[in-house]
Amino acid sequence: xxxxxxxxxxxxxxxxxxxxxxxxxxxxxxxxxxxxxxxxxxxxxxxxxxxxxxxxxxxxxxxxxxxxxxxx
Length: 72
Prior knowledge:
Blueprint: H1 3-21, H2 40-63
């Protein structure tokens, strides 16, 4: 079996096992009630990523150079 197939099969097995690992999560260690919500961290990560993109776009507006920057 080629190395590529081993990697693909390993990833498929890992993706199939990962939902069952959620049952081992210790819900007593959370500090806030919203941490218990299923899918909180993916939603939080997605919103954070969108926030970083929006901030980068805003910085790009203020830091933009003219097209003739290298012609001078």
